[in-house]
Amino acid sequence: MNIPQSSFPRVVIIGGGFAGLAAAKGLEKQELQVVLIDKHNYHTFQPLLYQVATGGLEPDSIAFPLRKRFNDVENFYFRLANVIKINPDKNGIETSIGNIDYDELIIATGSTTNFFGNTNIQKHTMEMKSVPQSLNIRSLILENFEEALLTSNLEERKALMNFVIVGGGPTGVELAGALAEMKKGILPKDYPDLDIRQMHINLIQSSGEILKGMSAKASEKAEDFLIKLGVNVWKNLRVLDYDGKVVTTNGEDNFRAETVIWAAGVKGEMVDGLQAECVIERAARIKVNEFNQVVNHPNIYAIGDIACMASKENPYGHPMMAQPAIQQGKLLAKNILAKLANKKQNAFIYNDKGSMATIGRNKAVVDLPKWKFQGVFAWFVWMFVHLFSLIGFRNRAIVFLNWVYNYIRFDRETRLIIRPFKKKHSANS
Amino acid sequence: MNIPQSSFPRVVIIGGGFAGLAAAKGLEKQELQVVLIDKHNYHTFQPLLYQVATGGLEPDSIAFPLRKRFNDVENFYFRLANVIKINPDKNGIETSIGNIDYDELIIATGSTTNFFGNTNIQKHTMEMKSVPQSLNIRSLILENFEEALLTSNLEERKALMNFVIVGGGPTGVELAGALAEMKKGILPKDYPDLDIRQMHINLIQSSGEILKGMSAKASEKAEDFLIKLGVNVWKNLRVLDYDGKVVTTNGEDNFRAETVIWAAGVKGEMVDGLQAECVIERAARIKVNEFNQVVNHPNIYAIGDIACMASKENPYGHPMMAQPAIQQGKLLAKNILAKLANKKQNAFIYNDKGSMATIGRNKAVVDLPKWKFQGVFAWFVWMFVHLFSLIGFRNRAIVFLNWVYNYIRFDRETRLIIRPFKKKHSANS
Lengths: 429, 429
Prior knowledge:
- The structure is a homodimer.
- The first copy, chain A, is an alpha/beta fold.
- Chain A folds into 2 domains: 10-113 and 267-340, FAD/NAD(P)-binding domain (3-Layer(bba) Sandwich); 119-264, 3-Layer(bba) Sandwich (FAD/NAD(P)-binding domain).
- Chain A has helices at residues 18-27, 49-53, 66-70, 119-124, 131-150, 154-160, 170-190, 216-228, 322-340, 376-389, 393-409, and strands spanning 10-14, 33-38, 42-44, 63-65, 76-80, 83-87, 92-95, 98-101, 104-107, 111-113, 162-166, 200-204, 232-234, 239-242, 246-249, 255-256, 259-262, 266-268, 279-280, 285-287, 293-294, 297-302, 307-308, 355-360, 363-367, 372-375.
- In chain A, the strands form 8 sheets. A 6-stranded mixed sheet of chain A has the order 5-2-1-9-22-21.
- In chain A, strand 12, helix 8 (216-228) and strand 13 (232-234) form a beta-alpha-beta unit.
- The longest helix of chain A has 21 residues, at 170-190.
- Chains A and B meet through strand 4, strand 5, helix 5 and helix 11 of A and strand 4, strand 5, helix 5 and helix 11 of B.
């Protein structure tokens, strides 16, 4: 890894997502050597990935180069690498670019798509947890429309214009809404030869309500918004399989569709090397105490999606979202500094600031602890919060400009197939 | 292809670059059926590709969706396809999505990189004619810097930080300048552990001057600017080979470098099916008369880079640049309309509006027919012209915003490895 030995303790952070970034910020400019490892050289603002997938934003404006954030920080080292294994006994980790020892280790690897062991679904559906994956979805949507133009087989054309989104959480809802807006304003203009009535957007939720983590009012209103936008919302329907052609369910309805997006679950992005008792196998999360310390390992911490801190309010761990991740990262940084200074550490208490989801133009739902509201104002609040949560002035300015443009023009202009997804042979041409 | 038969004559245009787009615009809203075929679903503004390669602009802001440009035009059909072959005898073409007949055919396939038959060079160097290729260069630059951090072998590190750009035309000069600015302002901050003095940018030109097509003053001044920016300019040096490790030349100097960008030549992007007498084999260009008609084929035209119209001023055809392409496209559209109306067609006369190249911040060279100037004012002229040549309000606004930001902050913020180039196994992760 070629990182110099220092007289300061070394803190290694795996992952530059919301949690890892918050921890790294809290540890900068201290008597510490900080090593941040990520498999990408940028931080991804995941809440806006769906807009990249649907042509509303450029990928570069929701990603931020990690080196840039820390390039004026001494004793800070970023390394682009995949972590292979942790060796807690040796206080070291193995990575794709060599081994490194740590004094304190922070695991902030985040989460990955959970296919619940169904390899067919894993093979044939699209996921949307990273920028490249979102770009793949964008390419596939447009490639399927191009293909729909060419076939004279009606069933095939319908399948190419049929979209199935599995999972009615925020990701599925926001993506379904954005697709519905593409159907409304953009695709009929771009593809006047296609009968846009043959385009269907199906959102499938296994339980009886979408946006399960939010209030009943938000859930109902979101469903209402989706239906108004022309999305078919299927509740109490469970997807059993997808062979690349037909989505089979436990109900009467099966779906012939060429584009299936799997947003039905996430699990921790597990790293190897921890003992079985530290890990909740099923959720792929790491058990931590109220200080985010991993069971039996006083100098290993897990924060964010990968961490499972059972509490009275959240017996199965906190929701796998940005807020708990940021809050845990911030507190952990303080606690590590306190620990090294032999001061008292504080237990984590989640401050639930609320949650929100956007369905489309002027349509969002917001649950604040003391106030729940939906509609136009909620939509502006959603935009405001997301804009100011982005890192970097340039990103904010460009996202703002795109949003204003898209709002005024009813448009999504970045509908480019930069890297074809289907035709892999031409990926570099 | 699924394009309906119409009572109007059908004009098929192959290629949505500067030439094809200009022709398509000139033919819209006439008593014609127009079919535009391109292998991308967007028009690429090639003059700014080097800024995508060096992290100054997002790819989406220099590309424009072709469907959007024509989505309110009747009798206009865009098809995403590769053209396989032309069958002049049958007035038809074969494509990756089927065959199509034409009444009039416009070949506007543009140009591709010319490796002059050297397969080693083709295999190991990078080219920069398309958006994906530019993104590959961006990824490679950053990946090599990441790798340079890891090696303790000095020779290897130097090779990873050594950049060779072959070809001193506008592309090579602009790219060398942009890299030099990355060396100055960005890379030392992002990679404080590397000795930036080990980064070298070599621009190799086989003849005695760079920017050969421009005035002697522009050429000298551009060289001067490059040298001030720290670029090693090698003139009268010819690259013979590159095995992926070492660039060998006909001089004393060979270059061990991991990043070699080939900007030493272009040739036409030839399509199969034309008779030998229509084609200039060596340059891969199609011989046309002063009406851009292909020899012996009164209803086939070639325009832009692919066309070679020998004239007194340009005995080997016009320069392979945007201006002749746009002018030929415009005139051809008029001529085709005139031909169908049995009116007089006009011969093409190239109106050379001048040429320009930017080397870096406040440093550009501009040759106008009656006025040649260099420096700060030239740089502003360059920016103004390029900004207003972009298609679409959104693209212009976003490029402008990026330029202002980059200028004020001395920054290039889109230095993201979205799709790794070297580590192909992780291309979709």
